[in-house]
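Researcher: Sequence recovery benchmark, item below. Answer with residues only.
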């Protein structure tokens, strides 16, 4: 029996993790965890935190940071040959 994963059909490259993803997720700021829980793609906590920290260091507001994360997700979806679902703007 073959083991399947929950990432779905994608042409995006898979990456190995260097730490426990659940511990990394638990350490994220609450608004970032909330966004990540509603994301279309299976983002790693490290990649989201990288975007978060860069935007925060630039003095971006929470709304602006969330917009950056959504933009990064749209760009990643377009690279993978997928498009965001029509219902991809959940109320956060």
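Model:
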């Amino acid at each position: 029996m073959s083991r399947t994963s929950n990432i779905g059909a994608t042409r995006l490259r898979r990456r190995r993790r260097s730490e426990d993803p659940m511990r990394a997720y638990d350490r994220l700021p609450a608004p970032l965890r909330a966004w990540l829980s509603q994301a279309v793609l299976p983002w790693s906590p490290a990649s989201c935190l990288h975007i978060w920290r860069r935007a925060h260091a630039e003095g971006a507001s929470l709304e602006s940071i969330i917009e950056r994360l959504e933009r990064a997700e749209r760009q990643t979806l377009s690279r993978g040959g997928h498009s965001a679902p029509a219902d991809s703007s959940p109320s956060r």
